[in-house]
Write a structure and sequence with these properties.
750 residues, 44% helix, alpha/beta, 25 helices, nine-stranded mixed beta sheet, Alpha-Beta Plaits, eight-stranded mixed beta sheet
Amino acid sequence: MRQIAKHWQRIAVTLIPVLIALLHAAGTIHIGVLQRLDDIIYDARLRATMPNTMDDRIVIVDLDEKSLGVVGRWPWSRNKLAEMMDILFDKQHIALLGFDVVFAEPDDSSGLFQLNKLARNELKDQPGFAEKLERLQESLDFDGRFAKALENRPIVMGFYLTGDRGGNISGVLPEPVFLKSDLRGRRIQSDPWNGYGSNIASLAKAAPIAGFFNYTTVEGDGVVRAIPLVAEFKEKYYESLSLAMFRSLAGSPSVEPGFSSESFLSRSLQGLDRLILRFGEKTLSIPVDHRVAALVPFRGPGGPMGKSFQYISASDILSGHIPPDSLKDKIVLLGTTAPGLNDLRVTPVGEAYPGVETHANMISGLLDGTMLLRPDYALGYEIAVVLFSGLLLAFGLPLLSAPRAVVLSVTVLGVLGGMNFWLYMSEGLVLPLATVMTMGVTAFALNMSYGYFVESRSKRELAHLFGTYVPPELVDEMVKDPDSYSMKAANRELTVMFCDMRGFTKMSERMEPIQLQELLNGVFSRLTSIIRSNRGTIDKYMGDCVMAFWGAPVETTEHAHLAVKSAMEMANAIQDINQEHRDRGLPEIGIGIGLNTGSMCVGDMGSNIRRSYTVIGDAVNLGSRLEGLSKVYGVDTVVSESTKLLAPEIAWQELDLVRVKGKELAVAIFWPKATVAALSQEANSELKTWSSFLKAYRAQDWDQADVQLLNVLRMNPNKYLYQVYAERVASMRLLPFDPEWDGATNFETK
């Protein structure tokens, strides 16, 4: 937030495309051109990295124009298909056959249905007709012949699911791979189906394994880039044709849904991200996206001329033109490339791509383990890279010259593009890229057109105005957003520090002026460096005292934390300085620091002759009083309660309740002992015991106070603070109980 306050105009300009990109990535708004650009990037990358080699394991038996011309229009009679089954399995000895077609209706081409109807009606009494028909039943039952040809052979049938309003169903579905109850309350997003078209009962019984061949994951531009591997119908999940064939080849392992293992997600939000095939104790994971779909790992251009898979005309199989065992141990898909049969698809690698070849590509990818994945965390990835790169450009570009801004932008976009491509090539991850690239180019263009000349003039004016009063490092930060600063006085909550050097008067009496100057300058340089490193503004040096404040002119909500941090570092620095002094034979020094947080008036104040950027007010005066109390309690730092409350990461030791000169209300004062994380067990025990002592002390329970004081003195016998309170308790025992006493110590001097 502090950086936004400094550069809000430049950052706001850059954040416009970042915000739009985030809204698009989150799905709040849809920018079609970005989605289309991502698709173009994916398609181009896919085409550039395809192997363009033939997979000799898979063969497509094609119901092509030639076959339709030779055998006749589709559908063919089932006796022809039975003959093809015998040829493929008995003569060619194929390993597996998959149908990219469905047999949803009985085959009446033999006339058997009409003959049976005549036998029941018009020719019911015709002598010998029934007997002759009975002898012809088997030869004319083409469905029966086809079913017999399917039996006990490695065959995967095909079917389709529908989402029509009517929800029509036909045929018999195969066994589902798993049930909705197997999800155990987790979610799975798939297309809603209310109907199907499957194979007739006799064929489904003969070849019970089947898979759907739907292309449900067509993108908005009508391009098939992915196909689902499972789909739901009436709380049962069925497998696709390609998955069913792969399982058949792998020995029919069981299928289980696999879910994200992110523990921070509830079970209902742990989406399915893989399918698990279980081979006994061994498993194989197939990655899927949120639609339970897998990207098709296209090998190359499709069709008989594409040379990714061997195509054989179905008519050549039936005519015997293919020598025996030419297809031995091959995986065969029966499908069509004939335009009239409507199984040509638009894909990234072709506008008239055979649908059957998409299944061939999927089977090939499953066999090789080269599946591409658009992961379920793609949304989070896109938001993360847009946010990271957007903020990097927003905060980086305003700080750089035009050439360096170009280098930063090109580097950021180059790294993101390179990482995206590396994840694609090495891990098979398809992650969005268009949004972040478009955002980066737009952000750079807006930054470069913001108006450097106007901004530069404002920076020079601000540097001239504040350069006399404010540390150079803060001026450099302020000039990046000059409109947010002025010299006008304003009331703001700040933290003020007064730091006084102890023993300076005695040193000045015994040291030469030059030596004293060198010592004083060395100490102040070390202390000033600490204040500046913690973003403090040096107000003034007053002899052996330095005054500083935090929170102006550059606002920060951490002013109290930074001030306390500075005080603790300054106390440690004095110990190092004293060690150096001992080594050089110089006198040791001490410091007293007072810190207070409150409302102060800050601005350009002074006379016409001399002015300074400073703070005034009661809160400032209290800070000065607290610095003087440090020697009373034998500590290096005294902090007011208002400052202590804004620095909860510090372990504090309460010193007293005091009423300083000019104040009617008592103020609790504290000493910063250490950070909470660094506090030892012994120190923590000491603080608890000290707290018990103060409670007894303020209740005027002197016996209990003596007990607790004795305990804390055993823990730290040399601490001056405890000796001060030992004397107080001894003297206050002699006084009568005072019900009006509030436990505070009054100080009448400054």
